[in-house]
Design goal:
single chain; alpha+beta; Thrombin, subunit H; six-stranded antiparallel beta barrel; 12 helices; 22% helix
Length: 492
């Protein structure tokens, strides 16, 4: 018993001794300023007042309503089905109607059809629908399916391959439609919705953010093309082409046009044509029958570190004027080779795509304000934009033009004429002069549908079809308003 009591006293004494030593060390560390704070306090490593983002802001802000934007959009986005008829081979044509008997394959008049799908956005309550040019290009028949499953035929009103925009129309009234937002005000990081019909799945809505603006992905091919896209990570796949990119207010800020993919399906990068370009092109087609392209009249080189040093800039910004075209608006205003364009209409310009996007929102005759750096000093110029012919004339579809190769004056068909004749393209002969078509017996009213098996719808189409052939023979196919079809060949 005495031994147990002795051990207890010894243990208590040892504990008191250890505690006393700890308290002494504790006071000394406090006095020397070496005492470590409580471990919980070590988490606060940022100085007070520093503006940092908490992790909770990585989630979708609760005040954003995707439901409202989606609900207002799905009924204004349509499914587009196109059909392109192709002539079969001469071998197939030889069997003709007997093909079904010999090969258990139906005969369709010596032609086969290719079917394509895409999306479109209703722009007005009377049936104007915008989509991509590549969705309807070459289509013989276009069918539109609305979100309520109604189906209607559509005709092409006009196209612009330089921006990949096409305007089609259905005969309907009181349709739901989207209003344009200002794509210039779109910010990187902003939430957006992509609405379309991927893989023929109607009314599909996906969400993402704007990843970049004025992105040049070089898919349109021509030097004159406006290759400037809004990049987003909203999921877009085949069939979304021509669909809507909207902000959280349900405003149309872009038309989905492409994806960057190694597999052919979505991998995280999708691209939309900015709404300000879409609005301008569709308005041109409705008002004038064709897009009105404006040009600044300069050849541009993008800035890099070496070029910035040459012009005396400390920062790599602006675009360098490598050449000023003599008949352009820039030369008339006083811009010179070697100037660096910093802003256009007070919008910063650092890439060719940014410049083309801004100029692409204007028509010939519009005046723009250009801020340039010359000899390291800023100067502002007022430039009147011109068309590719070097003047400010607005081109209209109803303006007939003469083609010397054919010896006829031609005009574009109206929307009503296309619907009446059940065709999606064509140029009407309004005057026959001395030439090959007169010798072929063609008279006024004849509609040229194709030349050398290439569809004809514009002045440029005729030039390409005639000039881009190795054959000395030119094949013209067309019809008269009474439905009689004619095909003939002549020696060029």
């Amino acid at each position: 018993m005495k031994q147990k009591l002795s051990n207890l006293i010894f243990g208590i004494t040892g504990g008191i001794l250890v505690l006393g030593i700890f308290l002494i060390v504790h006071r000394e560390q406090q006095a020397d300023g070496n005492f470590l704070p409580d471990p919980v306090e070590r988490l606060h490593v940022q100085p007070e007042g520093l503006n940092v983002y908490s992790a909770r802001y990585a989630s979708i802000p609760q005040q954003i309503s995707f439901e409202d934007a989606a609900e207002s959009t799905v009924n204004a986005v349509v499914h587009i089905r196109t059909e392109i008829k192709q002539r079969t081979s001469s071998y197939d044509d030889f069997f003709g109607p007997l093909r079904e008997y010999f090969f258990d394959s139906p005969y369709h008049g010596g032609s086969r059809s290719l079917v394509g799908f895409g999306s479109g956005v209703i722009l007005s309550d009377d049936g104007y629908i915008v989509t991509n040019n590549h969705v309807v290009e070459g289509a013989d028949q276009i069918e539109v399916t609305f979100n309520d499953r109604r189906k209607m035929p559509a005709v092409i009103v006009g196209t612009d391959p330089n921006t990949d925009i096409a305007l089609i129309k259905v005969e309907a009234q009181e349709l739901p439609f989207l209003v344009f937002g200002n794509s210039d005000h779109v910010k990187v990081g902003e939430w957006v919705l992509a609405v379309g019909n991927p893989f023929n799945l109607n009314s599909t809505v996906t969400a993402g953010i704007v990843s970049a603006k004025a992105r040049d992905i070089n898919i349109l091919g021509k030097r004159s093309s406006v290759d400037s896209f809004i990049q987003t990570d909203a999921v877009v796949n085949r069939g979304n082409s021509g669909g809507a990119l909207v902000n959280t207010a349900g405003e149309l800020i872009g038309i989905n046009a492409a994806i960057a993919s190694h597999t052919g399906v979505y991998e995280g990068y999708s691209f939309a044509i900015p709404s300000n370009i879409v609005k301008k092109i569709t308005d041109d087609i409705i008002r004038f029958g064709e897009p009105q392209r404006a040009f600044l009249g300069v050849e541009i080189r993008e800035m890099d570190q070496e070029l910035a040093k040459q012009v005396g800039e400390n920062e790599i910004k602006g675009v360098y004027i490598a050449n000023v075209l003599p008949q352009g608006g820039a030369a008339q205003a006083g811009l010179e080779t070697g100037d660096v364009i910093l802003e256009l209409n007070q919008r910063p310009v650092n890439t060719l795509s940014q410049l083309l996007e801004t100029v692409g929102q204007h028509r010939p005759g519009d005046e723009v304000e250009v801020l340039v750096l010359r000899n390291q000093k800023p100067k502002t110029y007022k430039v009147v934009l011109r068309n590719q012919d070097g003047n400010t004339k607005v081109l209209k579809t109803e303006d007939a033009f003469f083609n010397k190769d054919l010896g006829v004056k031609l005009a574009k068909l109206s929307t009503k004429e296309r619907q009446k004749y059940g065709i999606s393209n064509g140029l009407k002969v309004v005057e026959v002069q001395d030439g090959i078509m007169q010798r072929g017996g063609i008279s006024n009213g004849f509609i040229i549908l194709s030349i050398n098996n290439q569809k004809i719808d514009t002045k440029d189409d005729i030039s390409r079809a005639i000039n881009n052939t190795r054959s000395r023979f030119i094949k013209v196919q067309g019809m008269y308003p009474n439905g009689m079809k004619i095909s003939f060949e002549f020696l060029n």
